[in-house]
């Protein structure tokens, strides 16, 4: 039954993985506007940041001194776009709908050795080709894709296209370099673009009655790049090439052509499918994942079954002893019942533990809400930056649950300094993340990267933190201290019980390290695709499957922590508070180790700055995952301990 349920869920996820953003109105284009139609005649091309899989540093379009416009307003980016370094700007590449352009000169760039500014841009251009920087352009909210067929005959569409090609001194070049007979130590600039705009005709459609076949909706924007030393786009012209030692007399004419192609088989609502389905790296082998999920579910089911059966026998035996045997005989028993007078003894550094749990609850709820929005299609790839924006807004608005949870546990531990509890909950964890982010932002700013957030955005983040999140944390702490403290099912002895020496396999360090293996095992396969979306600049849209993994991660963290907690209580070790948090929180350690493996084996980063940025961002994600998984394990163990000690009979 469980296997059938999981299989049904995965089938459902696979059918909705490319679900489109609801409520987004399509743009209608036409050759000649009519009074009855609200259509556009001009197709605008926007440029975005340039990035590379060989560098963490993205750059704005103007960084390389390409053809640009100065007197046109730019679209307003949301918070998520700004944090990811996206800078969408208008471009001089403009054309009318259904108007074929054979060749058009946009601008001409000249580099001379006497102009220091031109030499600076020339060096940037060389660096961009060495690191294979990709341009990201946008037409009608669609990425301009570079499509080609691989050796297997399958079409592969990349959402970016290279600015040029560099043939090394050894004659090696990138896969995207389509230069024949390239010379060693030579740069080739892709200065000519051939646009192919596919559209769904309005003929026979209710929305196209005003213009018919003379209008439609854009469903794809593809481009082919070439290096042509010609202002008239002569196909037999020589390539634009120069060597690394060349610094004078370099002229680059930027040209383009446009061709429109009618395609009524694809509707506007499915226009993203050809991009998402053509990425070989993101094709998940469903049967392999199904087997992994079944193994995880069976393993967690076995843990739960063993735990329930063992506990049932223990509780029955202990209650029978209390009913039939004298108190002296009951004291001869060993196990978790003997520590009932110490199991709820407040831990050391209870304030810090309460703060970590409070911030973890904030992250758990935030991730749940964000995933639900993503599963329903509100955070699709067409809505750039929406995922990060939604996550930040949810996190800021969930300060009240964080403060309430922190206050309840802090007061249960006997704490009374509510003011300190407010400030620590609001500042410690967000401050640690913000400090790392600030250091990384300084590095980005020093390198002129577009990922460096502007000063105004920096102030906006501080305002969200101190003017919105902190007051909500105060409200949560106030409500938590106002309510009565949580009462434990058993009383705590005044004198602490001595803890026996633990055996090797249930020692503190081994149990914490082993506790994160199973939760990591259920997410490591999905981590590859998530890391690809971050560092390889690929789309991630398997949110339905990610939600299933999210639930399995919660169950696995809970059951693993409960099982290890039970073993320690049976060994008469009642120091479970911090251990339960660190046991499931050790999943983050495995994530960090996997990130090192991913960096070494999958990425081609050699720059020191990019390496520093990679591990800086990885450290931030590791800390967030530590809070998330640690909180899940702690809350599950807290519920378990209260449950078992509320059932047994204690005098």
**Helical segment tally?**
18
Quaternary structure annotation: single chain
Number of DSSP strand runs: 16
In percent, how helical is the residue content? 40-55%
How would you sum up the major sheet?
Answer: 6 strands, antiparallel
Separation of the first and last Cα atoms: 44 Å
What's the average pLDDT?
Answer: 83
Beta fraction: 15-25%
Task: Compute the CA-based radius of gyration.
Answer: 30 Å
Q: Structural class of the helices, strands and pairings?
A: alpha+beta
Choose one word for the global shape: elongated
- Detail the poorly predicted runs: 1-23, 325-333
Topology, element by element:
Elements: H1 2-16, E1 29-30, E2 42-52, E3 55-59, H2 79-83, E4 89-96, E5 101-111, H3 116-130, E6 134-139, E7 142-143, E8 146-149, E9 155-158, E10 161-162, E11 164-167, E12 186-189, E13 192-201, E14 215-226, E15 241-243, E16 250-262, H4 273-276, H5 286-324, H6 327-331, H7 350-375, H8 386-397, H9 399-412, H10 418-446, H11 455-482, H12 508-515, H13 517-521, H14 524-535, H15 543-570, H16 577-585, H17 587-601, H18 608-647
Parallel strand pairs: 13-16
Antiparallel strand pairs: 1-14, 2-3, 2-4, 2-6, 5-16, 6-7, 6-10, 8-9, 11-12, 12-15, 13-14
Helix pairs in contact: 1-5, 1-15, 5-15, 7-8, 7-9, 7-10, 7-15, 7-18, 9-10, 9-11, 10-11, 10-18, 12-16, 15-16, 15-18, 16-18, 17-18
Signal peptide: 1-18
Family: Belongs to the nonaspanin (TM9SF) (TC 9.A.2) family.
Membrane topology: Multi-pass membrane protein
